[in-house]
Amino acid sequence: MFAFVIATKRIAKASVDFLFPRQCIGCGKVGDFLCKKCCQELPRILPPQCQKCGKSEPTGFLCPSCWGWQSQIDGIRSPFRFEGIVREVVHALKYRNFRALSEPMAVLMADYLRSNSIPGNILVPVPLHYRRLKERGYNQSGLLVRELGKVVGLPVLYNVLHRVKDSSPQVRAASVTERYQNVKDAFVCKSSDEIAGKAVLLVDDVCTSGATLEACASVLKSAGAASVWGLTFAHEV
Known about the structure:
The chain has 237 residues and is α/β, with parallel strands linked by helices. Helix content is 39%, strand content 14%.
């Protein structure tokens, strides 16, 4: 029975690929959503970088923005700069219902984790407010963390973090101060037993100011998390 189900899924996938062939977001080449050539050309964030926010920083210590920042999040890391093809990929997943992109994006994030030591023994997605989730039909961070968990073999906790404030999208905030105010008291942790003493890897699609990740980290730390690091596919620089 199990073999029959697997075979049926493979046939269904082959049928979809035949009718709607996979095309690279970057160059349009048929075969993969992100072809090998375009993956190699994605704008990467390379060291030296800020030890806190993960942006490029010539000193390899803290960037000017992070000096004196009394943050709850232990650090933020992202493999790519939020520009060019990376921006197109993130927008396709986030706004154009291109859910299948979560798989190759997660593979690239997993590759980054393998070559960069980031503390984490559980994965937690940044949640959407239920109204936004109902409108969009999915949480792009939830899709990414599901695929990432499969690749790196870490457990995913989907329901420990909840967004209780339906604030406006961060992209509409004019300044960093407004972005932090926008997500103030926006999140709650409803399962401290699952978080206490754990090294949490907080997963999202893109980091802009870091305000959302910081707000999530604050409630996770209050619930007893030993550490909270942010991992996003891209970082606005």
